[in-house]
Amino acid sequence: MMLPYELIILLSLLLLGYVFGRLAERRHYRSIQAREDQYRQLLVLAERHLPPEYVTSHESRLVMGNVVVSVDYFKMMIATLRNLVGGSIGAFESLLDRARREAILRMQEQAAALGTGVVIFNVKLETCRVSGDASRGVGSVEVMAYGTALYPRSNAAR
Q: 27, 30, 43, 63: which has the highest count of C-beta atoms within 10 A?
């Protein structure tokens, strides 16, 4: 049986998780949207083969972006409750969305440092759980984005 102070602690943790989790998520989405606008001119393609116009006139380099994002206590509790009835877990969808977009942005930032006219192709995303186990759910998720950046030969010395 749960004592009254234990219930207060639980509710306090849920409230703190909700408030600070929402604030952190909003701040992260604002940062993502601003940086996506900044790198909008940089082409990111999932195509496996090199675009023909870049075959002979560009150098290539592997670029990658990696991020680990943790889930707040409130989302963990919501996901646990959702597991009782099944279905999609909306609380984790925003977590994965932010992690994927952040990893791609970090990859784009690395590619942009190579110079102007950069194109990234053959982009892949890898996802794994960093902490937590099957009985306790997901604690943090890691997403790595990688691809081949093509940049003008004049920037090859970088």
A: 63
